[in-house]
Amino acid sequence: MNEKTFKLPEIIDNENGWGPSPAMFPEKFRDIPYAPYSKADKLGRIADWSTPEQKEKENQYTAYGSGVSSAFAYTHDEDEASFSVVDNRTTAQKKASQFRVTGGTKTRQGGRGGQTNRNQRNGQFTRTGIPGRNMFTGKNAAAVVRRRFGWKDYDKPQRARDASVNVGPDWKVLEEIEFNRLSKLNLEVEDGEDLSTYGTLFYYDKSYDRVSTKTEKPLQQIERVRHITTTSKDPIIEQLAKEDAAMVFATDAILSLLMCAPRTVYPWDMVINRVGNKLFFDKRNNGVYDYITVNENAAEPPNETGDKDNINSPSALALEATLINHFFANQVVNESEKYEFDKSNPFPSSPEEFEYLASCAYRYRRFDLSVKEEEDLTLIVRTQLDSAVKTTAGDSFITIKALNEFDSRAQGAAGALDWRQRLDTQRGAVVATEMKNNSCKLARWAVQSILAGADQMKLGYVSRVSPKDHLRHVILATQYYKPRDFATQMNLSVSNGWGIVRTIVDLCMKLPEGKYVLLKDPNKPVVRLYSVPSNSFEAEEEAALDDVDDLDEDEDNIPSEK
Question: In tens digits, what is the pLDDT along the chain, a chain of 562 residues?
């Protein structure tokens, strides 16, 4: 029986300090510190011999102390649910910590009183106090009561919007572009060239310039026909495409949405048809282009509760705003005076319909999107004019739009001022609030006016007779703006919009012939370009044609003037 003996392993003692002996290191690693760390590193343990050795390629070194501090970070792997933190602060210390301001911008203004306001959107604090007195200490300290930033934000309902169109299983994503990339684009485009103008305009009734909150006028429901035909169904654009007058075709409603895409919040989509070497930007029937949003850009926009009787839901407000714009444009013109262009409206389906047409002219304009001299890339857009105005220099053309007030105390009003109290005395504050809450809508109106070459943009202020009645409205005021001045006031860059258009055109020009959809993500600032089957949306088009046929069979289908 062999007797086994136990031998101690060789132990190398470091007589000069603690840690491994220098004899254990290879010669090439002799000058590298064993455990380097910088003064900024936080040490959780003195030494952790169980930490795996960091694997690095030979002769590849990093900065001193870089990436090794995590080796000393303490990680507790046991269940911490049984532990509790004991707060040994006094009650006075706890109360004082509740009013500590962190990260906010504090602004002090002169005036009486101790009122403290808080901008809940960006965490900024503004206090109006007595001059010469510290607003955080002394006798005023007890009055400084602030709602902490983010307090109970978890309790707010999450708004998950649905896409404007269902993405089919056979749709293929070709490109995804974030809004911050779109905001950096830029292209200088000269003013458009007028090709032709169709329709008849009524002159603007200047008596509405004298309307005020004290002399308000009821909004009349005057029914008139206004056509919003999509691009590829426009007979004039079809003719221009056959003549190779341009490579890209669109309407002002579609193009303005694309140019103002970074300002959009609600979902939208547009159909792009590539036919030969031409692009047609189209809209779907009964889509987002046929309705006007309300407070889309507000910090807390109107919420869709699912209640069909809620008159302040986003869908109900959009329908109300659309009708208000239609009725307002029909009411503020004088039908006894007309400005007739050489060519009549191309859209009426019967001669009888001309009698019921709204004041509207369609101006077809061509823009040069070329970047190089040898390049030939032009775009034709159908724009709209709403009225004519007599001036000392001659007749000028304008667009007519209307802002609407629903209920300044309702959810989704976003801090809107009471128009009946502020519109006459604080018009600038009202406009500034509308520019903030309806940035996308107002930007699109300005772009449409610029595309049409309008001399002025007429803006009306329409409010409900009662906050609970969404069917009766009154006109409280009107105001003129020059489109480009209005765009500058809104910090709207038209060249950025042209840059977005050129980018999307370049993407589509590289694709083969077919149908594509540009879709805005319903909950993210992102647009995606999809390749879709050629028969997509045919069912919607057939349903729309059936509705038109049903109206044609009805003898009373033409709306009458009230």
Answer: 556 677 777 776 777 766 666 666 666 666 665 555 555 656 565 555 555 544 443 344 334 344 444 444 444 444 545 545 555 555 544 444 443 434 444 344 444 444 444 444 444 433 333 334 333 344 444 443 343 434 444 444 556 888 889 998 999 999 999 999 999 999 999 999 999 999 999 999 999 999 999 999 999 999 899 998 999 999 999 999 999 999 999 999 999 999 999 999 999 999 999 999 999 999 988 778 889 999 999 988 998 877 888 999 999 999 999 999 999 999 999 999 999 999 999 998 888 888 899 999 999 999 999 998 888 899 999 999 999 999 888 899 999 999 999 988 888 888 888 999 999 999 999 999 999 999 999 999 999 999 999 999 999 999 999 999 999 999 999 999 999 999 999 999 999 999 999 999 999 999 999 999 999 999 999 999 999 998 888 766 666 555 544 444 444 444 444 3
Structure tokens at 28: 């090439």
Q: Report whether 504 contacts 155 (CB < 8 A).
A: no
Contact 229, 358 (CB under 8 A): no
DSSP 425-480: T-HHHHHHHHHHHTHHHHHHHHHHHHHHT-SEEEEEEEEEEETTEEEEEEEEEEEE
Q: What distance in Å separates the CA atoms of residue 202 and residue 386, rounded to the nearest whole number?
A: 8
Q: What are phi and psi of 28, to 5 degrees?
A: -70, -15
CA distances from 325 to 183, 214, 286, 331 (A): 29, 22, 17, 10
| Backbone φ and ψ of 503, nearest 5° | -65, -45
Contacts of 374 (CB under 8 A, 6+ apart): none
The overall pTM is greater than 0.85:
no
Angle, CA of 126, 131 and 133, to the nearest 5°: 90
